[in-house]
Amino acid sequence: MSMEKIVSLCKQRGFLFQSSEIYGGLQGFWDYGPLGVELKRNVKEAWWREMVNCHDDMSTLPGAPTPYAMEGLDCTIIMHPQVWKCSGHYDLFHDYMVDCKETKKRYRHDQLNGRWVQAKGRKAFITAPAGDDEVELIQKHALKHFGLRNKNIDDLVYDGDVICLTEVDDLSQVVGPDTKAIGSLTEPREFNLMFKTFVGALSGEEGTAFLRPETAQGIFVNFKNVLDSTRHRLPLGIAQIGKSFRNEITPRNFTFRSREFEQMEIEFFCHPDQSQDWYTFWRDRRLDWYHTYGISEDRLIMREHAQDELAHYSIGTADIEYAFPFMAEGEFGELEGISHRGDFDLRSHMEGKLDENTNPLELQLGEDGKPKWKGSGKDLSYRDDLSGEKYIPHVIEPSAGADRATLAFICEAYHEDQQPDENGKMQSRTVMKFHPRLAPIKAAVFPLVKKDGMPEVAKKIYLDLKKRFKVFYDEKGAVGRRYRRQDETGTPYCITVDGQTLEDQTVTIRDRDTLQQQRIKIEEIAAVIQERLDR
RNA sequence: GCGGGUGUAGCUCAGUGGCUAGAGCGUCACGUUGCCAACGUGAAUGUCGACGGUUCGAAUCCGUUCACCCGCUCCA
User: Fold this and answer.
1) What digits encode the pLDDT tens for the residues A55-73?
2) Residue A135: how many CB atoms within 10 A of its CB?
3) How far is the CA of A464 from the C1' of B75 (A)?
């Protein structure tokens, strides 16, 4: 399955366009066309419907420890700047990078260590990637730089201990980690992964704010509000769908890595003792969701992160990954991450930014020994009225990308098959086999021919159906051609008015995948479509 | 950010310094047909990615830039 064909169909049929295309496009930004917007709305609606509105909070779902409540939320894109300091995004997303002009490699400024070394009457700051073996690496590298052999190791005179590159002001005296040349590193440049903007008329540090890089934090800071206003007991899930922004260095692969994207996130708050079970529950439930909507099992994998990839407080993180056609054989791209976040987020917003490398979690301190980022000071713990127990809930976070899911459904739907034409000769057909609930258009209505009163009947059926479903009317050209056009947009059902309709008030309903036609009464059409969408 | 490739009609692409820039598919109209990409006739559609340069003359050569694809790099 080639990605080019899928991209081409998306453009041609109106699923996806490049943003600002007439001006040459903008890297990492994509627009949804008439069909794309319907598809994406359906993806989000399917998620919201199953996770939130149709959630059964009276029963214990398969694999769940207990029943639980679900609520929705819609927060602003711009939030108080302190939110991002306590969440860790501010520190994490403000990387300074240096480039090596010789090797074209890029390093994080704070992840290169080095030492001042003198030899042969010269002095240089020799660097190596920070790590356990940095002292040996620096020594080896220094020998190379000064053109010395191992036996002359005593000629190297160290001036001071290993320090971070950030403490060196003059980069012209620095030797990059993968080169012999001195002064090949550029000045550190800031890579702002969060989009910056200004609140208020004055543009200065005072009013600096950020476009959210994830929707999750809006849920954490509103946790208490939702709890207080709904009278729910834990466990409670809070869901949100919304835009997020990340200034990706290399947007690539169609909409897969975009700078503006939409997330579908749940923060699930539960008792710490049950968090392991809930983690397992959500991991399996979310995987099933993709299967329900037609992603085949062999193109979807669950990848559990290894223990050393996890933050210390986390029991587990699993990615649901899809074999996108633009990825190499055997490689997968992330659709959704399900992580156990412990009480890291709520406590950080209470006490101040915690250090994720500590266990148990401790407040991260600045150079002055005070908290690096102050929290809100508000009590975000939960008191169980029945048991009287008071605790800070643990959080399970299933975080899905709406655009990535939509792209996966597009890729999965794309099929080329062989179907007979009117002479019985096999012709190739492009068909988008969307799950009927996701399909942008649910049904098309055709008069078999544009005469004998058929268009009039068909138009009336069309207008009736339009009140309940996204439907499409077409009377132009041969009916076979109209069927094929609907196949290409993924319309699951075609309703055709023919000669017999005028006699007995029946039409045919054609199935996109089997091409089978069934004769049904006009008054039953809506019910038949609804029944097929529901099953 | 680096290296390589690409950019011409809605889509796929041809066109290597010289007439008004082409094909297939698609789109539209009319006629004919009447259940799975029919046929005939006719029509519309291009800042040749953008900017600048060389030239009597540039889609074509040169420079810059933007976007996409591939490989590095990066990736909460």
Assistant:
1) 999 999 999 999 999 999 9
2) 15
3) 49
